[in-house]
């Protein structure tokens, strides 16, 4: 599967895929329902801005992101 990025659709790549009888599944370039990382980022944003939290220091912001990341529930 590929997302129609230029390297995936240039003639040489298309010819190589065809010569090996590979079936290509189309994959939307920006499809959050097919990209789990989009859901992870949504969760992290919700955590770091809980109760309208604002950050005055970049380091404090980074630590909040790191904390949200390390406390993700893998289930």
From TrEMBL:
One term of GO molecular function: nucleic acid binding
Signal peptide: none
Annotated Tc1-like transposase DDE domain residues: 3-52
Pfam family, one: DDE_3
Domain of life: Eukaryota
Name of the protein described by the UniProt record: DDE_3 domain-containing protein
């Amino acid at each position: 599967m590929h997302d129609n990025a230029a390297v995936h659709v240039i003639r040489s790549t298309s010819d190589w895929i065809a010569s090996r009888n590979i079936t290509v599944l189309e994959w939307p370039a920006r499809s959050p329902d097919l990209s789990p990382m989009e859901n992870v980022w949504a969760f992290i944003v919700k955590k770091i801005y809980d109760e309208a939290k604002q950050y005055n220091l970049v380091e404090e912001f980074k630590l909040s992101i790191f904390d949200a990341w390390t406390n993700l529930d893998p289930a």
